[in-house]
Amino acid sequence: MEILRREFVYLWYYFSVQFEQIFGWWVLGMVIGSAVSVFAKDYIHCAFQSLQGKKLGFLGIVAASALGIASPLCMYGTIPIAASFSKSGMKDSWLAAFMMSSILLNPQLIIYSAALGGTVLTVRIVSCFLCGIVAGLLICFFYRDRPFFNFTGFAEPQNRDTDPNIILRYIKNLGRNVKATGLYFLIGVLLSALFQRYVPAEAMTALFGGNEALGVLMAATIGVPLYACGGGTIPLLQQWLWDGMSVGSAASFMLTGPSTKITNLGALKIVLGLRRFLLYLIYVILFSLATGLVVNFVV
User: Fold this and answer.
1) According to the model, what pLDDT value does residue 111 have?
2) Is this model's pTM higher than 0.85 or not?
3) Per-residue pLDDT at 80
């Protein structure tokens, strides 16, 4: 009994310390994320819609990727939006850039990722932005005269932020945000405490920081089953980086995680079909590995 009590005290200490360090970033991310969702979402999507018909070439793909990051919607919210854009004639290459970057990042996750430090935050933003751009360029080059997406059956997007009182509209959105991410946040902090207590820092350094190529590969691989919510992975990444994880390995994890999240894969399988879905997975894995190696070389 004394051993159990002592272990509980240790775990509570690790849990409480990291909770205090990261809780403020989580709250700030939700506050700003909900504000973007309620007050700026329509402007962002209108800005994307305004690109249609313009002869922007490469710059159209760049703008689409940037607007995908700015969009606060998750993949299930992004697909109906993309479907409506597709019906109005939006290029598949622009849609690919918008959807790819939207899967990987949003304003709330940007704020929350600031808890990892300026270098990792910059790497995350730049790598997600480039991932969207490269996806758009590949679609433009290989599917220039063929459709890449099939949005058949997707209805017009439903807006849940409809309360006429703007304050209540924001509070309701914030409440849904807390409900969607709160449990994952607590689980992430708990897992981080368990890692601190029972996994030696030397083991994490050897796994994710020693052999850089192997570390990147391991991070990309573990990102597939472990990623459930951005709110749950930030505490883990923070601890792993403290324990010796390389920035490149973290970058690889942050790319494969959200892009292979089960709910995202289910939605993408519908709009891509089996063959193009497999191409998507190959692209994500190769891009994440290449990014991790480049980041380790540069940083």
Assistant:
1) 93
2) yes
3) 79
pLDDT, tens digit, for every residue of 21-46?
A: 889 998 999 899 889 988 888 888 88
In angstroms, rounded to a whole number, what is the distance separating the alpha carbons of residues 291 and 268? 23
The pLDDT, as a whole number, for residue 120 is: 94
Question: Residues 231, 235, 236, 240: is their CA dihedral positive or negative?
Answer: positive
Task: Give the residue among 223, 227, 229 at the shortest CA–CA distance from 181.
Answer: 229
| Ranges of residues in the chain whose predicted pLDDT is under 50 | none
Q: How far apart are CA 45 and CA 157, in angstroms?
A: 12
In degrees and rounded to multiples of 5, residue 150 shows phi and psi of -130, 100
Sequence letter at residue 88: S
